[in-house]
Each structure stands twice: as C-alpha cells, then as structure tokens.
Write a structure and sequence with these properties.
The chain has 183 residues and is mainly α. Helix content is 43%, strand content 5%. The chain is built from seven helices and four strands; from the N terminus they run αβαβαβαβααα. The strands form two sheets. A two-stranded parallel ribbon has the order 1-2. A two-stranded parallel sheet has the order 3-4. α5 (128-144) packs antiparallel against α6. The longest helix has 17 residues, at 128-144.
C-alpha cells in the first residue's frame, strides 16, 4: 500500500504548513522520503494551533528530514503582504519579534503593499461582554462618521475573533446598538 501511495503522490505541496502536527509530518515523511519532491508553504509566525499539536518546530523538523544533506537549506521567505496596512504589519512585527525563534529559520520583515492606514490602538477590556459592546460602539461611531468601508473592515475584524465569543456577547451588544448585526 505504501509503495502504491508513494507512486501516486510523487509531487506533494503542503499549504498552511504551520498547522501541521507530528502525525501529519510522519505521514509526509512516509510518502515523500524516497523522492523528496515536496514543498511546504507556511508561516512559522502563525503557528498558533498548539492545542491541536501544531508547532513552529514543525518547520525545523521538516528541514531536518527533507533537506538533510543539502548544501543549502531551500527556504524562500515570502515577505510581500497584500492584506494588511503598514502600521498593522509593523506593530505585529514588533510583537512577533518577542517570540522564540529557531536559528534554522530566516528572520523576515513583511513589506506592505497597502498604505500605512490608521494608527493601531490597543484597547484592553475586562470581559467578552465589554469587548462586544466596544466593537458595536466602534462600528457605530465609524459608520456615523461616514468612514467608507466601515462595515467591511469591522465585519472582518469581528468575524476573526474566537467563535465562542462571537456566538454570545456580540449579539447582545448589537441588539442594544444601532449598528446592524448578521451572523
């Protein structure tokens, strides 16, 4: 069965590699150890699924297994960012710089393709309910100020938060606000 699968999957591309766990790495090794026609695309700074067994360490394990014996480690950092404004990238970069980092992985600095955008604000709130109330009021404030694209930006920001939080607190906060809510 293994030989048949190795022949069937001679070229392997793993996207979102930062989400892989040890069992998945072992499976990749079984499938690609002979031909090593494998590419992994991912961001070690986004390895946030530790509770599912994922770790930024997967990148060094991948390199140790698949690039062993190579004169140069085949790493090509992708640094152009098309999604986020410059200020957000710089702020995130400053926070990420505090993380533990493997010497095997290159340091990277993201370059935004969008302008700087608005100043980044840090808002510290005491509970999920307070956070929901603040988000609803902020959407309402931006909408009332006529800021274009407010609903799209706020919708994106809100829906990227934790699902458990999103199911309770925002519904109540939006009911008491003039901002619209759609789930």
């Amino acid at each position: 069965l293994l030989r048949r699968l190795q022949q069937l999957y001679r070229y392997i591309l793993v996207d979102e590699f930062q989400d892989t766990n040890i069992a998945q790495l072992d499976l990749l090794w079984l499938l690609a150890r002979d031909h090593r026609n494998i590419v992994a695309v991912g961001d070690d700074d986004q390895a946030i699924y530790r509770f599912r067994g994922a770790s930024f360490g997967s990148f060094t394990i991948f390199l140790d297994k698949f690039a062993a014996g190579l004169a140069k480690r085949p790493i090509a950092p992708l640094t152009l960012n098309y999604r986020s404004a410059g200020r957000i990238l710089r702020t995130a970069g400053q926070v990420i710089a505090l993380n533990e980092r493997s010497a095997a992985l290159p340091k990277k600095e993201l370059t935004p393709r969008k302008p700087d955008g608005e100043k980044v604000r840090l808002v510290e709130l005491g509970s999920a309910e307070e956070e929901a109330q603040w988000v609803a009021q902020e959407i309402e404030r931006l909408h009332d100020a006529g800021v274009s694209g407010t609903s799209a930006r706020c919708s994106t920001a809100c829906t990227r938060t934790a699902t458990a939080w999103w199911t309770r607190s925002p519904r109540a906060a939006f009911r008491s606000s003039s901002a619209s809510f759609r789930s």
